[in-house]
Amino acid sequence: MLNYLWGFMILIGIVVAAFTGTMGEVTNTAINSSREGVEVCIKLLGALAFWMGIMGIAEKSGLINVLTEKIRPVLRFLFPDIPDGHKAQKYIATNLIANILGLGWGATPPGLLAMKELQKLNLKKDEASNAMCMFLIVNISSVQLISINIIAYRSQYGSINPSEIIGPSILATLISTLTAVVYGKIMERRKRV
Amino acid sequence: MVPVIVMGVLTYGLLKKVNIFDVFVEGARKSVNTILTIMPTLIGLMIAVGIIRVSGTLGYIERILKPLFAFTSFPSELIPLTILRSISSSASLGLVLDLFKQYGPDSFIGRFVSIMMGCTETIFYTMSVYFMSIGIKKTRYTLSGAIIANLAGVVASFYITLWIFGK
Fold this sequence. Notes:
The complex is a heterodimer.
Chain A: H1 2-20, H2 23-60, H3 63-70, H4 72-78, H5 87-100, H6 104-121, H7 130-140, H8 148-156, H9 166-189
Helix pairs in contact in A: 2-8, 3-5, 5-6, 7-9
Chain B: H1 2-15, H2 20-54, H3 57-65, H4 79-85, H5 89-103, H6 108-118, H7 124-132, H8 142-165
C-alpha cells in the first residue's frame, strides 16, 4: 500500500511541478527534506532513548505486569466473550498498556498474539468475532496517553512549551476511545448476520 | 505528568531492587534500533511530502476539497492530513513535520495537529496486519467503528484546541 502511495505522491508531484515550473524547487526539496529526515531522527533519539529507558525499568520491575492486572476489570467489561483468566486477556492488556504508555512498537507483538488467541475462541472462523472488532476499534481509536514523539518533534521545531498538549491530548484520546467503545457495544447487540 | 511517571517508575524500580541505571541503558539502547528502522522511512516520506508541497500539488488538492468543508470553520490546509492519517502513519508524520515548519508547532494548526495525531491511528494498515495474521477477511463493523472513532478524535481535537488555546 505504501509502495503505491509513496510512488504516487512523488510522481504526481513531479508532473505537477513540470506544469508549475517548480522543478528546481523539487530538486532542492528532495535534498533538504532528506537531510531534515536525518536531523529529526537524530534529535528524536534523545527523547526516545529516555522514554524507552524508563519503560525498560517499568518492565523489569514488574510494574507493567501490575498495571496489566489492574486493568482486568476493564477487559471483562470490554470483552465479555473472553473467559476470565484466558491468555487473550493478558495479551490484550499488554497491548493496551504498551499503547497507553506510547510504546506503539512494543504493542504489536502482544496484539498479534491476542488475535491468535481470540481466533481460538472464535465460533465463526472466517468472520471477526465481537471481541476482535472491539479490540481493533479500541486500538485504532488510539489509547495513547503520552505521545513522547510528538512532544519531541514540537520541541525540535521551536515550540515554546512542547508538552502543553499532554492534557488536551489525553482528553481527546479519551473521547475517541469512548466513542469506539460505545459504538462497539451498540454493534455487538445487533444480531450477527 | 512526565516527571510524575518517571518518579513513580524509578521509585518502584528501586523498591523492587532493580539495577535501574543498567536497565535504563538497556532500554535506551533499543531506541537506537528503532531510530535506525524509522530513519529511511522518514527520509523517503519527507521527500515525498516536500515534493508535493513545493510543486503545488498539495495546494490543488486543498482547493478541490475545500468546498466540502466550506460550511465548517475547519482549516482547509488540514484536510489532506486528516485523510492521510487514516492511511499511513509515516506519510502523515511527514505532513505534520511539514506543517510544523510552515506554521510553527505553537500555532492553532500546530497544536491541533499535535493533539490529533495522538488520538487517531491508521485504519487500513492496522486492520490488515491484525486480521491477515489470522487469515480473516470478513471484518464486520471494524472498519465503520475505526472511521467513526478517528472522526470523533479529529472533531474532539479541533474543539479542544479551540477551547483551550483559542485561535
